[in-house]
Design a protein that fits this description.
It is built from eleven helices and ten strands. It is of the alpha/beta class. β9, α9 and β10 form a beta-alpha-beta unit. The longest helix has 26 residues. It is globular, with a radius of gyration of 20 Å.
Length: about 350
């Protein structure tokens, strides 16, 4: 029996290469948050291999679930609902989490809640502090670069998105060309702290009033610069390449976020997603908003990368609104954020 009237959600996340289970109290307090990473398995391939990711999820999900319950000293019967990442993500990986959640919810007669992965990244910030509406979320991850306006809990309006490569994708591809180990993003960030912006790579601002992003041209410019230097026998310093590339990405992300925040008169700006762990981006955002009354929220590093606590935080909003998913729920790798928020 539960000792108080708090609401507890057991959350599952398996959208890519982390198998994660968490237990969240009232949508804002982490009781347990267990993550099994697969980085070592994918490192030799230079990226995530979907089939390998799926197999690892199958092997790890029960162990991670048991560990999350043990750390919380709770049972599934004490949960008020089961939340799981419904999409987007790798379909095989998503299926492991979805089917685990459905089995648990059915066996223990608990409400089932499907959660959008990006909504989870946004709500990771609420595990640290309450939201102030309207707010603007800068979502930056391996597959997503978006500006999301929120006027209330659980409602999402995408006002800017990438037209080609996401920022995280560009980081990974540039890192691969530079011969850096996987995952490449943290390596570029580390090197960038040691170099200077000397190579003057392009900034894609697009139309004057657009909040969309484009990093394909920048990625190509960096790769071409590296290839041309190699053909001419010129050795470019990796620190300078990393610093120049990162400076271009960060300047566009920060300035578009700043302009959108001012235009929509938001009270809070939050950053979400794996690239939110980037040191250069975190520092630049703090500098840009230092003289503004807009509250800037940056999650701790442990909540930037994929985890189940964020899914539980987002799932609690759906639970409180009485939104639950039926037994026909399936993995949805193309789940739309705005459509998810309008359920």
């Amino acid at each position: 029996m539960k000792k108080n009237q708090s609401k507890y959600i057991l959350a599952i996340e398996t959208s890519c290469d982390e198998t994660a289970v968490a237990i969240i109290e009232d949508g804002q307090k982490i009781i347990s948050n267990v993550v099994a990473s697969q980085i070592e398995s994918h490192k030799r391939f230079g990226g995530v291999v979907p089939e390998i990711a799926s197999r690892h999820h199958v092997e790890q999900i029960t162990l991670v679930l048991e560990e999350a319950l043990n750390q919380a000293k709770m049972s599934i019967d004490e949960m008020d609902a089961i939340a799981v990442t419904e999409g987007p993500g790798l379909v095989g990986a998503l299926l492991v989490g979805v089917n685990t959640a459905k089995a648990l919810a059915f066996a223990h007669q608990k409400p089932l809640i499907g959660v959008h992965h990006i909504a989870g990244h946004i709500y990771a910030n609420r595990l640290e502090e309450e939201f102030l509406f309207p707010l603007l979320a800068l979502v930056v991850s391996g597959g997503h670069t978006e500006l999301v306006l929120m006027r209330e809990h659980g409602q999402f309006e995408v006002i800017g998105e990438t037209r080609d490569d996401a920022a995280g994708e560009a980081y990974d591809k540039v890192a691969r060309t530079m011969g850096l180990p996987y995952p490449g993003g943290p390596e570029i960030d580390r090197l960038a702290q040691l170099g200077s912006d000397t190579l003057d790579f392009p900034r894609a601002w697009l139309e004057e009033d657009s909040f969309d992003f484009s990093f394909s041209g920048l990625k190509s410019a960096v790769i071409n610069t590296l290839h041309n230097a190699k053909q001419k026998g010129i050795e470019l310093k990796k620190e300078e390449v990393a610093a120049s590339f990162q400076a271009s990405v960060v300047e566009v992300l920060v300035e578009k976020t700043y302009r959108a925040a001012k235009q929509y008169q938001v009270k809070q700006v939050i950053i979400a997603g794996g690239v939110a762990a980037n040191t250069g981006l975190r520092h630049a955002l703090k500098d840009r908003f230092s003289k503004e009354t807009i509250k800037l929220s940056i999650p701790p590093l442990r909540l930037c990368t994929d985890n189940a606590a964020m899914i539980g935080a987002a799932g609690m909003i759906a639970y409180q609104k009485g939104i639950k998913t039926d037994w026909a729920m399936n993995a949805n790798p193309a789940l739309d954020l705005e459509a998810y928020g309008s359920r």
